[in-house]
Design brief:
mainly alpha
Length: about 270
């Protein structure tokens, strides 16, 4: 699981470096095209993978749009803010999922979960720091991306009958199409090394997906899932050594509140399931 989280963070660090010179849409297209090449042997072995698409095509289409929007928000945000700061906002996604599930999935929520959700929102506000230098449009875009990610997660819960490979294939095609639409307007011919790194985005992302899936096969979800928060550690280390970024104290405090709230919700859900 830690390897998977590190790979995803490395993927985002490469994206932050590339997005300084290339458009978000271009990165989305080349990254997804490379990922599809990796997926192709698996897709060829599963001709039935497309059969679930027509059954709930509206939901699948909306989920693909959300995935493309979430990745675009993240890349646009990290063009302007430190990598660790962006991850701090994205840590709030499980909090947003808990809130959205109440209205979209009809989940019943008690006072404990509501309290954790409220504290999670407080953590986001602490990191944003309204009225301070950290309160900016890129920061708001990162928070928006976190909300979009949460919506995508809820959509995934609505598609439990669809296996993981099918979902990854659909969303990768969707992101590739979204990126391709922007190419006539924002294309910049990349150097050979930069093109290799763009392709690397897709390869590293696929390796991260497979690592995490393998971790869930080896261990129970309640053992593996909390390790998702190690992404903040990797983001801090990569941001510090590559760009010299150091998160603010309010960022760490807000992150601690969000992580504590997320873990509390997770523990409560685990107890309910046993």
């Amino acid at each position: 699981m830690n390897v998977g989280m590190l790979l995803f963070t490395m993927n985002d660090a490469i994206g932050k470096w590339l997005v300084q010179d290339y458009s978000v849409g271009q990165l989305l297209f080349i990254r997804s095209a490379a990922a599809l090449i990796v997926l192709m042997p698996l897709i060829r072995r599963r001709p039935d993978i497309w059969r679930t698409l027509p059954k709930r095509k509206g939901l699948h289409l909306l989920r693909m749009i959300l995935v493309a929007a979430e990745v675009a928000c993240f890349y646009w945000a990290v063009r302007y803010i430190p990598l660790a700061d962006a991850f701090m906002y994205y840590l709030a996604a499980p909090i947003f999922v808990a809130a959205l599930a109440i209205f979209m999935l009809g989940e019943k929520v008690g006072v404990h979960r509501w309290t954790a959700i409220v504290f999670g929102f407080v953590g986001v506000i602490v990191i944003l720091g309204p009225g301070q230098a950290s309160f900016s449009m890129p920061a708001l875009i990162a928070v928006t991306g976190s909300v979009v990610l949460a919506l995508m997660m809820v959509m995934t819960r609505m598609l439990t009958e669809v296996d993981g490979l099918a979902l990854i294939t659909y969303q990768t095609f969707g992101v590739a199409i979204a990126g391709a639409i922007t190419l006539p307007f924002f294309w910049t011919t990349p150097s050979l090394p930069d093109f290799a790194f763009m392709c690397g985005l897709g390869l590293v992302a696929m390796a991260g997906h497979f690592s995490i899936n393998h971790a869930f096969r080896l261990c129970e979800a309640n053992v593996v899932a909390p390790f998702q928060y190690t992404t903040l550690l990797w983001a801090f280390l990569l941001g510090y050594f590559i760009w010299g970024d150091i998160p603010t104290l309010q960022g760490w405090i807000g992150s601690a509140i969000i992580i504590a709230s997320g873990l509390y919700i997770y523990v409560r859900e685990r107890k309910k399931g046993t």
